[in-house]
Amino acid sequence: MPYLIESSILAGHIPTLKGDGFYRQTPANAKNYLMKVIGIETSCDETGIALYDSVSGAMFQRLHSQIKLHAPFGGVVPELASRNHIQRTLPLLDELLSEAGGGKGQIDGIAYTAGPGLIGALLAGAAIARSLAWALNRPAIGIHHMEGHLLAPLLAAGDKPEFPFIALLASGGHTQLIQADRHGCYQMLGQTVDDAAGEAFDKIAKMLGLGYPGGPEVSRLAETGQPGRFKFPRPMVNRKGLDFSFSGLKTFVRNTIASQTEKAQTLDRQTIADICLEFETAVVDSLTIKCRRALRQCNTPRLVIAGGVSANRRLRQKLTEMALQEGGAAYFPPPDLCTDNGAMIAYAGYLRLASGARQGNEISARARWPLTELRPPRQPETEHL
Amino acid sequence: MKLLGIETASDACSAALMLGGETLQRFEIAPRRHADLILPMVDQLLAEAGISASTLDAIAFGRGPGAFTGVRLAAGVTQGIAYGLDLPVVPVSSLATLAQGVDADQVWAGFDARLGEVYWGAYRRSSAGLMEAVIDEVVCAPEAISDGGLTEATGIGHAWLTYEQPLRQKLGSRITRILPDQLPRAADLLRLAEALVAGGELVTAAEAQPIYLRTPSWR
Ligand SMILES: Nc1ncnc2c1ncn2[C@@H]1O[C@H](COP(=O)(O)OP(=O)(O)OP(=O)(O)O)[C@@H](O)[C@H]1O
Ligand SMILES: [Mg+2]
Known about the structure:
The complex is a heterodimer. By secondary structure, chain A is of the alpha/beta class. Chain A folds into two domains: 185 residues, 2-Layer Sandwich (Nucleotidyltransferase, domain 5); 171 residues, Nucleotidyltransferase, domain 5 (2-Layer Sandwich), CATH 3.30.420. In chain A, 52% of the residues are buried. Chain B is an alpha/beta fold. Helix content of chain B is 30%, strand content 28%. In chain B, helix 3 packs across helix 6. Chain B is globular. The chains are: A alpha/beta, B alpha/beta. The interface between A and B is medium-sized, with 37 and 31 residues. The structure holds adenosine-5'-triphosphate and magnesium ion (MG). The site of adenosine-5'-triphosphate (ATP) has 23 residues of chain A, from helix 5 and helix 6.
């Protein structure tokens, strides 16, 4: 099924995204007008492929998760991930194109995740993406994975955030507060000094014998938890600045689990649920306090939350309330676009390609790539298709 | 017949274009720069030949064994081009390509596979001048290699640099000479590919998959 996004985009026009640095409406005959962009995401353990149609706003997508493949090893095995991506990418793309109808001839551009991530996995997607674009004589562009996450809230139905905004990027590998002045202009306000928020969820889940990824599991169990039974620390909230830390909380939970198992051989369901609730609340509180601080410090009313952890319901609720109290609003990706996916890459690629960004035929990928190194895409008048 | 060939399984990055009897090649020893070089090389070849990619009949690639990332790059580039242009694909052994490039009729070809092992094959030249495998390619310790029944042969590939001692011990005086610096070249790959095309050994774009021989270590 196509994933249809509500869109204010007018047929025949490059979309005008509001706020500084976004594109002004451009006539349909502009040379850099792009309609359909493929997105290829292979930075870690999901192969995500999408087709974004900028005119209709339709998003078709396919996702293959490697969770089962890596499960026996207790973590992602990079070489296995790369091998899987090189097998899955093309069949998924082919399926997607048949579903969308119109074949590969309809492709106007190709975006792929160029980093950060596992280098072998990134290169698998990059090689296919850039070579296919070369063969089709269409432009290809390497996209920063976290810019993909950051722009995913623009794919949500309803209100979309305008620049400038504050972004909380919370995923399996990142927990960052970013000041997004305009598309491609990002300043780091703070980040985790140890574990990422999603990683903390995953580790707690492991301690409790729950499955991977831990976030959804912990969050589901927390719903039946009883508040007040445990009291975990709210990390870093008394510390100045906008950095995060989750390893102290993790240790605290580990000790709690240890003392509970001393009392009773195994943890009963209720105890697990109570721990999940208090852990989740502690993480959410800590994230919320820092986000509030960031909004005040930057005097910006808009808060964007993206990355896998932004799927968390309690977090969504808390941050929405907080942003309202601060006289602003919080924006989230559609629930299925919080974790890794091809759609966010297709969209981020579309935005850059449509504004004229072009790259050479080098198949480029970077395992490490600070988001703050990004620059705004070239403006339409300086580059042509 | 117009054939494009890509070989990136070793420290060498090369691409070649076969047009009837003539073959053009780009070849560079460029460790870790293959991803940057390969598509520009293909572009240069097409420009030099004055043909468009859409007139190609098939694309051949070095499917390994060899460096995982390099072999995967060749597979990925081949998939993209073949899918985009509706071309059939010819997977060719990177070890056979290495063997094809030496002026000898019998060859023991080996890449250093690290971790104390070699990717290994034994080849005999056919009457048509093409190298044919006499044993299945394997990854194994140099002490465990098979001579494939060859009475004497040329040793080729960087396995002969790292493991000269154990290989000499195993094969002794049957080694006629050793060429450890030789690397696989796309032009030689195309010689083998031409015959495979004639034999109908073609696969689809999605089937352009590496042959690794080795299962990955956990981390
Ligand atoms: N409902 C949820 N509550 C909390 N955490 C969640 C929830 N859903 C997913 N997560 C967490 O999100 C993470 C996965 O998100 P994502 O796919 O964006 O991360 P990643 O791609 O592995 O990391 P990165 O984007 O930093 O490279 C996991 O750690 C998972 O536990
Ligand atoms: Mg991610």
